[in-house]
Predict the 3D structure of the following.
Amino acid sequence: MAFDYDKYLRPGKLPHIWCPGCGHGIAMKGLIRAIDACGLEKNNTAIVSGIGCASRLPGYVDFNTLHTAHGRAAAFATGVKMAKPEMNVIVVGGDGDGTAIGGNHFIHACRRNIDMTYVIFNNSIYGMTGGQFSPCTPTGAKASTTVYGNPDPTFDISKLAIGAGATFVARTTAFHATQIDKLIAEGIKHKGMAVIEVLDDCPTTYGRRNKFRSVVDMMKRLKDIAVPVAAASKMTAEQLEGKVLTGVLYKEEKPEYTQQYAKVIAKAQGA
Amino acid sequence: MAKKVALLQGNEACAQGALYAGCKFFGGYPITPSTEVAEVLSVELPKVGGKFIQMEDEIGAMASVIGASLTGSKVLTATSGPGVSLKQELIGYACIAEVPCVIINVMRGGPSTGMPTGPGQSDVQQAKWGTHGDHAAIALVPASCQEIFSETVRAFNLAEKYRMPVQVLFDEIVGHSRERIEFPEPGELEVIDRQTPTVAPEQYKPYDTSFGDVPPLAAFGSGYRFHVTGLNKAQDGFPTTKASLVDDEQRRQLRKVDAAQAEIEKNEEYLTDDAEVVIFAYGSTSRSARYAVNELRKEGIKAGLFRPITLWPFPEKRVAELAKKAKAIVVPEMNLGQMVLEVERVAKGDCKIGFLGRVDGEPINPGQIIAKVKEVK
Amino acid sequence: MAERFEIRFSGAGGQGLITAGIILAEAASIIEGKHAVQSQSYGPEARGGASKSEVIISDGPIDYPKATIVDACLAMTQESADKYANGIKEGGVLLLDSDFVKKEPQGDFKVYKFPITRTAKDDLGREIVANVVALGAMIALTGAVSREAGEKAVLARVPEAFLELNKKAYALGYEKVKELMK
């Protein structure tokens, strides 16, 4: 039987704002399937976002939803989770939102290892504002503010998350649709900060400027560059050139922030 | 039984007032001269099952309190001018999304880093106009440690009652001075909790004006699922660009405070009945002004003091009346002319206005006010 | 007691003079039920530099919370004497640590001095209680609060293990000055 997405979508809120060929819809469906697989209660789940195309997602789904300001999602979510640790907190947003203007909040949420699931939709561009380069735009690529080619080096979001202290980090792509829900579900079940990077594409503002002839071409690229971590261990450096690793990149068990704070409360109360 | 008394700094009294009001969440970032508020709450909040978090920056601190407030907690953050500048983005968010929260600003000199350990009163217009867009503002300006306690309680009440951010501004002088305070007994000061919905979850709209200009606010996790956004939104909470809906919502948000001005406004007057010169002073400067009034009266000069305790909304009506009655209004403030602009606007030329500003990190002393009154009268 | 009585404690940051001011304000406002305001100013350095702590005591509410012209002043170091031993009322008093303040401030006030820090070190073996010695001395000098109220306020602030030491320090300062005043 086909999966019933309507159960989790708010009636009357579609169509979404995403362009034809955008990967965000695929990622959203993966998120919904993951929530369903984990059996999260709608009333007990908050979905928090910042600003941008991906950040419009909370408006479409039937949970406690919080569409915040640009870059601030992780900090708002931290307040929600601290005040109500029994809630499931999921953050969604784009690469610019999470790693540029929201970079500080992102790394500190990772450092605290607070129990939330942060799904980053990395389309390597600021789509909503018309295609300016983000910290994840490849060097040399064209954007509306890098018509001569992007001079900036790029962030590797997953490495950033691992370096900052996230205890579950995974990556996949919009092409690998069925892997999206598996990795997000694993992230939700993980006690601590889970970051799932979903590489997708913006045909409208990125593909057009960077000589992708079609959405299919862009999808093919996602398929080609993805190398599962297990396979990568058997490959040479030359073979891995230009590839990205997918799957669970990092996982460890470490004290979770709200549990640590529960100990502070116990201590303050003389336990 | 005798009341509990203690010698407390204004900042400590503020933290105690927050606890009295039922504050359960503090998100902050260290900044002089406000840090004692955070320090006390880091000790006291966990004792009552509350949460304290030191965030990565001022913006994150403001974000965390808004997030926590949406789960139904009474929330507080405390900072100083540079921190308030950073928080403006999300103060605006709390305005448009109508999320109750209290922001303490222990004012120092400025702009920028300015004078961290010196007092100032230069954030008083920022409290009204700091964030972009049209929005209502409530700001309270207590002048003593005891009053910092009670005004912090009142700030929570107003934030919860009117579903909006409320700022409490006091300067480094009262923030760091220690004075004896009497702790009010539970129940002695009014404590107001926010209105939560009475309708069924499927009928709930977070901005439903059929309940008046301040719609009830459900908590995340309470079974009422709703959407919160910083975009202009319709009554159901979802974004809209429909002109009439945007206009209605923006006007309602100003109206909810305008209509309640009488209840929100709080002033103290000292010897204004027959005053020929009224000194308009707030915060620690009002204490110098009261001293000056007593000295001037000894010399036979009919001076009086008008002290706003609610600075925003501005006490327009009463200041206009005083302007009609008095020969002059003198405005001393530790800035280069901020609230004097409001006094001038409201006085409409009905009396002379004298201004006395000081921004060298030293308080305005009574002698300066006395001299100014004599010069203007 | 006058309507408004002002005392300034000054010295180097870290010498405990802010604490001395707080204890005096507690003695006046909590124990004797008067009105008191304590305030301080200091530089950006956590230790060293010159710091001051001021206490205003009054029978009625205190309007202006900062010192205007002080009735009594303490200076524990030369730097603090140079910076803060001014604005003393005519006929007021100034207490100096004679080991550290070699260049005495001049004015229409009476100067008292003894080696405050050395007294704490030699007589009690603990330099750290020099601030309490100084507090005892200032209370003896001014009568701002009663000897008993001052002692009670000191003891309310210190951990149990140090009660005896601080009690002695307070009495030592108090009596040193009473002798100087003879």
Q: What stands out?
A: The radius of gyration of chain C is 15 Å.
